[in-house]
Amino acid sequence: MKLWGGRFETGPSEIFERFSGSLAFDRRLMGADIRGSQAFARALEQAGILTAGERALIIEALDQIQEEAAEPEFFANATDEDVHTLVIRKLKERAGAVADKIHTGRSRNEQVSLDLRLWLRAECDRVRALLAGAMQALLDLAARYPDAVIPGYTHTRRAQAVLWPHYLLAYFEMFARDAERFAEARRRVNAMPLGSGALAGSGFPFDRRAMARDLGFDTLTANSMDVSADRDFALDFLYAASTTMLHLSRLAEDWILYSSEEFGWLELGDEVTSGSSLMPQKKNPDSLELIRGKSGRVLGCLHSLMVTMKGLPLTYNRDMQEDKEPLFDAAHQMAGSLEMARAVVASARLNPARPLAAAQESWVIATDLAEALARAGTPFHQAHQLVGRLVLESVRSGKKPADWTAAELQRFAPEFTPDMARLLDPREGMRSREILGGTGPQAVARALEEARGRLARMSV
Ligand code: ARG
Question: Could you give the CA distance from residue 239 to residue 242 in angstroms, rounded to a whole number?
Answer without folding.
Answer: 5
